[in-house]
Amino acid sequence: MSETRSEISQLGEFGLIDHISRGFSLKNTSSIKGIGDDAAVLSAGQDDYLLLSTDMLVEGIHFDLAYMPLIHLGYKAVAVNVSDIAAMNGKAEQITVSLALTNRFSVEAVDALYKGIHAACENYGVDLIGGDTTASPSGLVISISVTGRVKKDKVVYRSGAKPHDIICVTGDLGGAFIGLQVLEREKQVFLSDPNMQPALDSFEYIVGRQLKPEARTDVVSDLAEAGVLPTSMIDVSDGLASELLHIGKNSGVGVRIFEDKIPIDQVTFNTAVEFNLDPITCALNGGEDYELLFTISQADQEKIKNHPDIHMIGYVHDKADQHLMISKQGTIVPLQAQGWNHFAS
Ligand code: ADP
Ligand code: MG
């Protein structure tokens, strides 16, 4: 046994995944793509690929039941998995749900969780096909795996971006993060005076972004209808900067985005300012927006330029080590992956 002890926090989440994956290679010809994208890609018949992804939500790390209703938690746990299938340009089809429960939870609480899971299954057209149930010494853990399907010639990886491609992002960014700040603040107010009612009315949009995210399956359909196949795609779970770097690194290209093109909702902007936070930093480094970030070839620009929810924020270039944002003042800011480091304490 070696005497050395290395801290996980020094590697961070992505470093740890790299570290783990180094010792493994794919042995089966049916394993088309393993670790390193939003979902694994497996061969499944003549025309289709099967997609497989898994995501775990842990109480106290990913959610706080003080402000996360169980019905929303159930919905969100499914939505974030469906989002990873959407990021491969696929359609989600089945989920399994694994739970670790403490005796703090009643049957009614489990029913509330599954009401949300059911609503998401209906909305995304997904079948619940199994799972696992066990006890937890402390805290709720919910782990969902999802399968999906995509035509072989329509699968989109993180690795296909080419110089001169246009970088697009859907919806707006930073809202889920700033919504979380509002929820945390109201929780503290409530803890100091339980008679205080949370004042959430004017924050409805951003609180909803945190508690009720949707996978952008609508955009996957719109792109197909417009005849646009993205050259690369990823969902925005860790923040725009981190996801741009994933696309850049996996595609062996550089990215250049423009600060004034980053879509930020007005409520997100105003609330960030109220919290003394830079709205752009919230969009770049806040997580959990579950929008889609993708690149398209210039030839496809016309086909989606009028889509109300797709924003062109920059372009791809050939200098693989240059991932930059041009600020409103015209200065060049290197993009850095903050993401979330749950291991830092
Ligand atoms: P996403 O944010 O899209 O869910 P992650 O950042 O969680 O993706 O994971 C990136 C890649 O690393 C995925 O291919 C995922 O399957 C893989 N991965 C994550 N954790 C592990 C692990 N503990 N062992 C093996 N592969 C992992
Ligand atoms: Mg993802």
Features:
13 strands; seven-stranded mixed β-sheet; alpha+beta; binds magnesium ion; binds adenosine-5'-diphosphate; 345 residues; six-stranded mixed β-sheet; 10 helices; single chain
Question: How are the elements arranged and paired?
Answer:
Blueprint (H helix, E strand, L loop, with lengths): L7 H14 L9 E3 L6 E5 L3 E11 L11 H17 L4 E11 L5 H18 L2 E9 L5 E11 L14 E5 L4 H18 L11 H8 L5 H10 L5 E4 L4 H12 L2 E5 L7 H9 L4 H7 L6 E5 L4 H4 L5 E8 L5 E4 L5 E3 L11
Parallel strand pairs: 4-5, 9-12
Antiparallel strand pairs: 1-2, 2-3, 3-6, 4-6, 7-10, 7-11, 8-10, 9-11, 12-13
Helix pairs in contact: 2-3, 4-5, 4-8
The structure holds adenosine-5'-diphosphate and magnesium ion.
Uncertain stretches of 5 or more adjacent residues: none
Structural class: alpha+beta
Bound molecules: adenosine-5'-diphosphate, magnesium ion
> Strands of the biggest beta sheet: in what spatial order?
8-10-7-11-9-12-13
Question: How many β-strand stretches?
Answer: 13
Q: How much strand? A: 15-25%
Helix and strand run: HEEEHEHEEEHHHEHEHHEHEEE
Biggest sheet record: 7 strands, mixed
What average pLDDT do the residues reach?
94
Radius of gyration: 20 Å
Distance between the termini: 27 Å
Portion of residues in helices?
Answer: 25-40%
Tell me, what's the shape?
globular
The number of helical segments is 10
